[in-house]
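mind reviewing this stuff:

——
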Amino acid sequence: MQQAELDAKAPGDLVPYGRESYYKPDPLPPSQDLALNEDFYETLAAATFWLGKLSGVSHELDFPAVLETSLLRKEAIESVEIEGADVDYDALYSVEIRTFDEGRDEPSETTEAGETKDTLEVLNYEAAVQDGIDALDHGKELNVKLLHDLHDTLLTGVPDDRVDTDTIGAYKTKPNYLGDFLPPAPDAVEDLMDGLFTYYLTGGSYHPLVDIALFHYQFETIHPYGDGNGRLGRLLITLQLYDADLLERPNLYLSEYFNRNKDTYVERMEAIRFHGEWEAWLSFFIEGVARQARESVERTLALVDLRREYEDEYGGKSYTKNQLAVTLFEQPYVTSKTVQRLFEVKQPTASRAINELVDEGVLEEVPRHGRNKEYRAREIFEILEQPPQTY
């Protein structure tokens, strides 16, 4: 990257670094006035409305556990897939159901069949979000210390020869690249990050959604860690929305929008670095929040309606089949051993309950290579995996 590539409006400078130059972004807020038009403010209003609707739905409804865990899982899957991972719901639930069936609280420290680097990254992402939510619930600030803890959770235990274990939970010690772009050198990171969190913790300068979008750009431009910057940056969006009381639960999967529009996601941030085009990035970001919040509301209501149907049809009866059907909103992925443990029944009773629900279209067998047959709640997963809506 040469000096000539930066426009006069570029919010940063090139700093000599050996034979190269790294990009040092100016601190937030942007020095130029943001030219945000009427269309932008309409989109901002829509995003705020749908976030409010999502929080209201989450707070008022009897919220099934599968909703929170599965929508958070959707966010985690999409976030790691942006970086080239290949993982699906089945692989993750398969790991968890084997853990449950074996009477363990956590997945084994050794990698088992079905546990790949990609699945472990997703599980770590989920754990990091929950750790962040718990920290905020206990009155902690979203600050550099918490950031290091979340980075540690994201990367610990994930096999990757490229990762220096000494820098997990700590800023990078070597330069890292984004294609031909060289982010700030290691010795510049601490001051830049301190400045970024000072901006955040003192309340920013704009509407909270605008400030979160600015923060995300700045974080990804600083690229403070040796690995995991993309995942951590997207994870922070969820925590900041929660911290700003714009999200009741971590059930907004914004990474799906970024993944679906990956080229635009990258290009809009590059356009800020080189040309100072803040408005295009902010419009893209806020549009994503509006779309994903609306879709999450609709997906949540569809799952709640389905649960009511199951409770009407199967609730109030002590048969194992009926108990299993209504329990699928807590445990949507099962084996015969799962049913035996859940309801303290023998194997023939568990298998009969599963087979009856398969015949009724409630469960479907998932082709696996493990010793035990695995089944998932067909209609629940149809809702979770349905393609994004067009608005």
